[in-house]
Amino acid sequence: MKAIFLTLIGITAIVTSSAEPIRVACVGDSITFGAGIRDRQNKSYPAQLSVMLGDSHVVKNFGNSGSTLLKKGDKPYWKQREFAAAVAFEPHVVIIKLGTNDTKPQNWKHGSDFASDYKDMITTFRSLKSKPQVYVCLPVPVFKTRWGITDKIINENVIPATKAIAKQTGAKLIDLNTPLKGKAALVPDSVHPNAGGARIMAETIAQILKADKTSQ
Predict the structure, then answer these.
(1) Distance CA 188, CA 185 (A)
(2) pLDDT classification of 6: cutoffs 50, 70, 90
(3) What is the pLDDT of residues 106-134, one digit of tens each?
(4) In the chain, what percentage of residues exceed pLDDT 90?
(5) Measuring CA to CA, which residue among 158, 132, 155, 133 is closest to residue 68?
(6) Separation CA 96–CA 174 (nearest Å)
(7) Is residue 14 scored above 50 in pLDDT?
(8) Which residue ranges form the domains of the chain, and what is each CATH number?
(9) Are 136 and 174 in contact (CB under 8 A)?
């Protein structure tokens, strides 16, 4: 009887240890990349999210600085190697945090394409064999217009559009704007959160992912 019990424990241990980790792709621009963060390899939001989620998840940073969601933008994420790498990663979870660079004048003149381009990106990831759950993020606040990036367009255009896209596609919505409202000290250059701001982003995302996993 004891031998059977020990055998069952061994089998359970093998099954548990061989469970496939949940692959999480963090898709985005310089904010996802961790631009301006000292030791971004460990302090960007994806890096901090990885620690929070633990060994059951493999979190990859696919951020590309300056990228737009708009296909006609001055640096479309679609054309960057990080996009191809994110697709090849066959993620189980995709977190899209784009839209900030789209507010630049040369990009937002194509703003009428924002919703359709966003839906195309969601569809692209959903068509993968891994059938990932896609989350779309509201951009973090911009505290001062820099490099053509403006909070006005984020609030009046990008945020309402992203909310509508989430509703229309069934993608999960993550609000990264509200948690950083009024916290300019955590966004030193007015656009890019520092390590503390990235921690708040990671905590917000981790809380939602964990809640969704629990409800499954």
Answers:
(1) 6
(2) very low
(3) 999 999 999 999 999 999 999 999 999 99
(4) 88
(5) 158
(6) 9
(7) no
(8) 21-215 (3.40.50.1110)
(9) yes
In the block, which residue shows the tokens 């633990």? 54
CA separation for the pair 17, 38 (Å, rounded): 35
What would the two tokens of residue 115 be? 């919703």
Residue 1 pLDDT? 52
What's the CA gap between 123 and 30, in Å, rounded? 23
**Tokens of residue 131, six digits:** 């059938």
- Kindly tell me the burial class for residue 137, based on how many C-beta atoms sit within 10 Å of its own C-beta (0-12, 13-18, 19 or more): buried
What span, in angstroms and rounded, lies between the C-alpha atoms of 42 and 107? 31
With H, G, I as helix, E, B as strand and everything else as coil, classify residue 53: helix
Vertex 186: Cα angle to 77 and 191 (nearest 5): 35
List pLDDT tens digits, range 149-166. Answer: 999 999 999 999 999 999
Q: Classify 157 as helix, strand or coil.
A: helix
Would you state the structure tokens that stand for residue 200, as one six-digit string? 């708040």
Tens-digit pLDDT profile for residues 184-195: 999 999 999 999
Q: How many CA atoms lie within 13 A of 113 on its CB side?
A: 15
Q: At what angle do helices 45-53 and 195-215 cross, to 10 degrees?
A: 40
Pairing between β-strand 22-28 and β-strand 133-138 as defined by DSSP bridges: unpaired
- Which candidate, 49, 87, 66, 80, places its Cα nearest to that of 191? 66
Structural tokens at position 201: 């982003």
